[in-house]
Amino acid sequence: MTAHSAFARNQWYVAAWSAEVGGDLLGRTVLGEPIALYRTGEGRAVALADRCVHRRFPLSRSRLDGDKVVCGYHGFTYDTTGTCVFVPGQKRVPRTARVGSFPVAEVDSLVWVWIGDRDAADPAAIPRAPHLAGEGWTTVSGMEPVDCDFGLLVDNLMDLSHETYLHGGHIGTPEVAETPITTEVDEEAGVVRVSRHMQDAECPPFYARSTGIEGRIRRRQDIEYFAPCLYLLHSRISPAGQDAPLFETEITYAITPSAPGRVYDFWAVSRNFAVGDPEVSGFLRDANHTVVMQDVDALNVLQRCLDTETEGYQELSINIDTGGLAARRILARLAAQ
Ligand code: FES
Ligand SMILES: [Fe+2]
After folding, report:
1. CB atoms inside a 10 Å sphere around CB 188
2. How far apart are CA 87 and CA 263, in angstroms?
3. Which of 26, 208, 253, 321 could cross-link with 37 by S-S, CB 3.0 to 4.6 Å?
4. Where is the Rieske domain (predicted)?
5. Which sign does the torsion angle of CA 19, 21, 22, 27 carry?
6. Is there a contact between 137 and 274 (Cβ–Cβ < 8 Å)?
7. Is the pLDDT of residue 319 over 90?
């Protein structure tokens, strides 16, 4: 993979958590397109191109007047479709006074946008993460931008053997890297599944403190990656040698290419135990944020290194890379479509 891979445009990408989109304008860049997001009085999320047609001032740095956006520079005013309905100092609004708008779909507390051909946007194609807003689950979440190519974050998430080395003392234990994986690829659907089942493993603090299990555990990690954007890690923990009690944690990542060399890392940890316990929520939020920042730091460093490589350097792949390589193949195919 080159340092900056091409993006698949005709796909849904997560631009924000639902909770981030409200009565204030939010600026995000998806596939290199600057977007201004906000929510109408009726509660509908809107995504407009984030550049005023007049002198290109960012609408995300402007203000809302009801459901309309008033440019913060000279007051050009846009409705939810991006059509300009007011300009200062004259009655006539030029016919070309409009900014682009993007299809939006809000599913499972994620705000998805479509940057490609508008006619091809089908919200039914959005992959689901029902635990994020599901009954019986509690979720902590966040987002970190990373100064690396989208592909580096996909590689990172597809191979969890790095937990042992990069996240030791947090979520990594020796058994993660020691245990072989099984990989299943559905090329046509664009889904990669990677599983690692540890029968008798050390319990890392992430699970010891959240579940209360003392001693060794059975730990199962089942990844489902719905290319290009949604990644689910179904994590199941029980005491070693037992199936119960079973603690299920759904770890969600939405991986959104912002621009070449920049990616949004949306993360969430959902659990179906201790659901009303604020102490467990606080612990998991801090613990996962720490883990995410370890990845962010590593990927920032890695990208700087790759940027100085001469063309044609040779990577070396082994068994642990099977899922990541399958993901790269699928992403390359989607980008070429
Ligand atoms: S740049 Fe927006 S009104 Fe002038
Ligand atoms: Fe990691």
Report:
1. 8
2. 36
3. 26
4. 12-113
5. positive
6. no
7. yes
Structure tokens that stand for 95 in this block: 């016919």
Q: Measured from the CB, is residue 86 less than 6 Å from ligand 1?
A: no
Domains of the chain: 12-125 (2.102.10.10), 130-336 (3.90.380.10)
CA 187 to CA 146: how far, in whole Å? 28
Residue with tokens 């956006």: 69
State the DSSP H helix or E strand holding residue 165, giving kind and residue range, or none if neither.
helix 162-166
- Residue 11 is predicted with a pLDDT of 98
57 lines ligand 1 (CB under 6 A): yes
Q: Which residue has the tokens 């846009």?
A: 78
pTM score of the predicted model: 0.96
pLDDT at residue 5 tops 90: no
Task: Tell me the pLDDT tens digit for each residue of 107-149.
Answer: 999 999 999 999 999 999 999 999 999 999 999 999 999 999 9
Nearest CA to ligand 1 atom 3: 74
Instruction: Look up residue 43 and give its amino acid.
Output: G
State in Å, rounded, how far the first CA of the chain is from the last one. 18
Amino acid at 222: D
Residue 75 in contact with ligand 1 by CB distance below 6 A: yes
Ligand 1 centre to CA of 87 (Å) is: 9
| pLDDT of the residue at 240 | 97
Mean pLDDT value of segment 250-258: 98
The identity of residue 9, as a single letter, is R
**Tokens 């009565």, located at residue:** 23
192 pairs with which residues across the strands?
185, 225
Q: Is the pLDDT of residue 87 over 60?
A: yes
